[in-house]
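Design request, tokens follow.
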């Protein structure tokens, strides 16, 4: 009497027959790419206060391995500490703040202040000239009404 093969019956019922002694391989479709892109990673920047705080903690660390633990906790390399110490010792407070990128603001030309002062003087003198011309015109009209001749002055309008 032949013993029935129960494993073969289960595979045949599930559609998992063999071909030439091999099982068919099930190829799964490739996973769809996520259409949403993750945010681009940004470089960390430390404020001057953060740098000074970390430097104080590193200077206060006395036992062996404490500076290494501090560096691991803050996620820093020892070269960052070295650079920050050099900047602090040199007294470069601006070196402890991140530098602003891009073109630097240029200083105004050296003659710009003199030009601005000259333009103010010109505007002031033009106003005085307009007032003086208005007064002269008024004097001419009064002299014409009174019939008094004005002394001969070299004028542009020929009077």
């Amino acid at each position: 009497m032949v013993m029935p093969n129960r494993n073969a019956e289960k595979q045949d019922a599930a559609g998992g027959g063999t071909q030439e002694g091999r099982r068919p391989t099930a190829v799964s479709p490739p996973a769809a790419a996520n259409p949403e892109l993750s945010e681009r990673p940004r470089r960390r920047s430390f404020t001057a206060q953060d740098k000074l705080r970390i430097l104080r903690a590193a200077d206060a660390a006395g036992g062996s391995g404490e500076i290494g633990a501090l560096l691991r906790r803050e996620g820093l390399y020892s070269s960052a500490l070295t650079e920050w110490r050099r900047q602090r010792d040199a007294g470069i407070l601006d070196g402890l703040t991140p530098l602003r990128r891009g073109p630097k603001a240029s200083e105004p030309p050296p003659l710009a202040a003199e030009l601005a002062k000259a333009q103010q003087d010109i505007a002031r003198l033009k106003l005085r000239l307009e007032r003086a011309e208005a007064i002269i015109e008024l004097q001419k009209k009064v002299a014409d009404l009174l019939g008094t001749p004005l002394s001969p002055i070299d004028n542009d309008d020929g009077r």
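Comment from the thread starter after seeing the answer: thanks! Residues 112-146 form the longest helix (35 residues).
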